[in-house]
Amino acid sequence: MTVVLVRHGQTDWNAERRIQGWAPTPLSERGREQATRVGEHLAATYEFDRTIASDLRRTRETADRIHRAGVEPTPTVDDRWRERDFGVYQGLTYETMFEEYPEFSVGQSGETALGVTPERGESLLDLRERVLTGLEDIDSDETVLVVTHGGPLYAVLSHATGIDYATVIDEDSQDNCAVNELQHTAGAFEAVRKNDTGYREST
Fold it and tell me: Which candidate in 8, 41, 67, 149 is catalytic?
C-alpha cells in the first residue's frame, strides 16, 4: 500500500492565519497555482488507483486542479478527511484562539488539549478517530492519493510513525500542497516523505 497525502492549496484565510475548520473557503490565486504545480509533479511521479478528497471546498478545488494537471482517476470525495470542526471558534486567528482559550493549545496545555471539544465542534481525538477510519478503508494493494488538511495529516502521521500525537501537532508543520508519502509493508507504515515541497524547486 502506498498512500500519498497532500494538503490543499493556500486560501486567503491561510494567509491571514484564520481557523477555517469546515468553512467553505476557496483557494486564492496562489493556492490555485500551487495545486496545478503539485498536480504536475504527482502526474510525473505516481500512478494512482484512486484519488480521494475531503468534501470541503478548498480540498475539492485542489483535487480538481491536480486532476486537470494530469493525475488520474477522477477524484471522489469523502467527508472523513475533513479538517477539524472548530465550532464557534471558526474564523478566529490562531493567535486569538490560543491566547484567549489556551485549553485548546497542545503547546500550552499538553495532552489534555487533545480531548477538549469546542462548542458545536469536535476534539482532536474525535478528528483522529474519524480520519483513521478513512485510512483503514484503503486496500492494501492500492496506490492512493488523498487531498486533505493539516489536522488530518497530523493524525495520520502520528499513527503511521508512532510518534506521540500531541508532539506531532506541536512540533510538525504542513505547508500548502506539501506532499507526504506512506508505505505500508509487513504490517507497518513508513513515512517516506513528510511535508515535502522540494518539487517546486525542480525545473
Answer: 8
